[in-house]
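Example record

The entry below shows one chain as it appears in the dataset: sequence first, then C-alpha cells.
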Amino acid sequence: MRAFLPTSLILAGVIFLFSGVAWAQSNIYSFTGDVDLGVDYTTFTSSGQHYIGARWDTVYVVTSNGWTWCQKSTDGGQTFGPAVRVNSTGAGYNPSMRVDTAGVVYVAYQDEFADIRFSKSTDGGVIFTPGVKVNDDTIPQVGQEKPAIAVNNKGQVFIAWNDQRTAPGQPHKAIFAAASYDGGQTFTQNIQVNDTSEGAGVNDIAADDSGRVYVLYQGGIIARSIDSLQSFPIRTYITEPPWSRGFSSMAISGPLVGLFGVAGRFVGDSLEITLRFTVSTDHAETFLPSVRVDDDTTGDYNLSILHASLFVHKNTFFASWSEVRSGRDIFFSYSSDTGRTFAANKQVNSDSAKTHTSPSLAVNEGGKAFVVWRDPRHDPFFGLNWHSFVAVGNPIYLKGDLNLDSILTAADVVTIMNAVFLDISFPAPFENADGNCDGMLRPVDIVLELKAVFLYEPFPCAGIEISFDKPGFALNLTPKGTGIKG
C-alpha cells in the first residue's frame, strides 16, 4: 500500500474545505427501553416540551397529575426512584423544567389559584424549595397558565406564561415574563412580552449568558430582549409561509455562537404536514430557509405530527416528536451540520401500542439521548390510564466519522482539515479525529483520515470504546494547548 496520497486527492480535500457541501446523514443512535415510571398521569402541557433533563447518567423527569412530581434516575435511565413532590401549593399543573450545568433542577408550574410558581432542588431532586409566586398581579384567579422556563450559566431564571390580566377570560391574549437574578428567590416586576394585536400563546423561552432572552409564541413570532428581560424591544416574524401551528420548541447553542433552532409543523400546498427546522446564526435577527426533519413516506399527513421537542449539544440539534405512521409513535433525529440536513428518523418507543404522545428530549454531556413520553398501553380500550415512559439512545461511534453520519467520506476529511487548520469544532467525540491516539490534533491526523477515506487503510490505534458509566468520563481529551476540542 502506498504511504502517500495522490496530489489530486489532497486538492479535492482542500476544495471540499471551502465548498460548503451539505451531506445527508444516517442515524448512529440505538434506543432501548421503555422504562415505565410507574405513576399514572393525567394530561398536562409542558411549554417547549421541556420536562426531562440530564447531567451525565443522572436523569430527571417532572410530570403532573394535579400535583407536580419529579423522578430521578442515577443509572442512565435504566431505573427511576420514587416520585418526589415538587409543588408546595395545593396543586401543581403544566410543569416546565431545566437542569443547569451544576445539576440544579429548576421547575415552573401553575398552582390551584391560577398563579405561576417557581421551585428548585439543589440536592439532586431530594427536596424542592417552597414555591415562589412569579406573577405580580393582585387579581385573584385571573388566569395565568402554561409557564415556560429557561436558565443560563449565571444561575439566572427566566419564565414566560400566558396571562389573562389584560383580557379576562382570554388566556391566549397576552404573554408576560419575569426574571430572577438571585437563583429564584425573588422575581422582577412582570413585563408584557407580546403586542396584544398579534395574538399569543407561549411556546418556549431560551436565554444565554450575555443578556439575550428569547420568547417564542404562536404564529412564528420571537420577542427578543437584550437586557436580561428588562424589556422586549425587538420582534422577529418568521415569514416562511404557510406555517400551521407555528414553532413549538427552540434551543440555543451558547452565549457566543448564536445558533438558534426552532421546530414546528408545516402545511404545504398539498396539505402535507411535515416537521420543519430553521436556524439563525445572528441571534434570531434572521432565519435560514427551513429544512424537513421527518422522513415519512407513508403519505398519511392528516394532522400527524405533534409535540416537537428540540435540544442542542455541541452545536448539534436533536429533535423528538410524535407522529402517525403505522401508529402514533415517538421519533428521533438530529442534525450535526447545524440544521442543513437531518439524520434518518429512528422510532424511540419499542412497544406496539398505537398512541404515544408529548415527548420531551434531553442529551447529556457524553451525547447519550433521553426521551420521555406518555401513552395508555396499560389501558388500551379506554385510554384513561396514562403512564410516562423513558427510552435511552446510545450513539455508536465510528473511528474517523466526524460528522456523525456513520460512514467515512470526503466530508470527514473536510471536517478534520477545518479542525486542524481553522480551529473549527465538530460534533463527534475528539477521539474520532485523533487518528493516532496521541491526544492531539495535528496534520498527521489529516493524513490518517485521508488514508482511511480514500485508501481504506485502518487507523493505527483502536476504535473508540465509549462508556457512560462514570460522571468523570469526558469526550474531549485534548491536552491544553495541543489542539482543539470536538
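Notes for this example: The first strand starts at residue 29 and ends at 41. The first helix runs from residue 7 to 17.
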